[in-house]
Amino acid sequence: VLKWVEEAVQASKVHLLSTDRLTSGRSFWQIPFDPSLKEVTVSLSGPSPEIGIHNPLGKPVKKGSGLNELLNIENSAKVVNIKDPGPGTWTIQTSSSGRHSIRITGLSNIDFRAGFSRKPTLDFKMTSTRPVQGIPTFILLNTTGIHLPARVERLELLSVAGDPLKTVPVKPFP
């Protein structure tokens, strides 16, 4: 039974942000949460990890008022989550005193898959997970769980460090 529950949870796990930073520093992420998100988890691994979360009204979410601390290993890693966060643009602040990794995931029935290729294709086997700089590239995007009137209008491409590179319009395939 526990194995089934684990697989069911993994099936609805969506990746909201994943980035690796080579140096210390503080980052601010403005992440839109849609009504389908049932839970959001923020993981930070690196020295002196700190995570701050503000709801769409700008109010900090703290332990005891919606924030659950799942893991706190001093000078190594921190993991927090929020259940039923509510829709809107949330602000997530992370900081570390050295090289660190940030992963933000959620539980939702809405997800997407993207692949990059040099030629137009409808076959994900013909795509790769990252584009090659300087080469014209096509993007194959498959969404699941989205129902009208919702639709995908644009795709924002980020660097490996999580910095915005370009926003491109999405054209639906008939």
From TrEMBL:
Pfam families hit by this protein: GBD_Hemicentin
Lineage, highest ranks first: Eukaryota, Metazoa, Chordata, Craniata, Vertebrata
Subcellular location field: Cytoplasm; Endomembrane system
Domain Hemicentin/VWA7 galactose-binding: 13-109
Keywords (A to Z) from UniProt: Cytoplasm, Disulfide bond, Glycoprotein, Immunoglobulin domain, Membrane, Signal, Transmembrane, Transmembrane helix
One Gene Ontology cellular component: cytoplasm
Name of the molecule in the record: Hemicentin-1-like
Gene encoding the protein: LOC106556649
Membrane-topology annotation of the record: Single-pass type I membrane protein
Principal cellular location given in the protein's record: cytoplasm
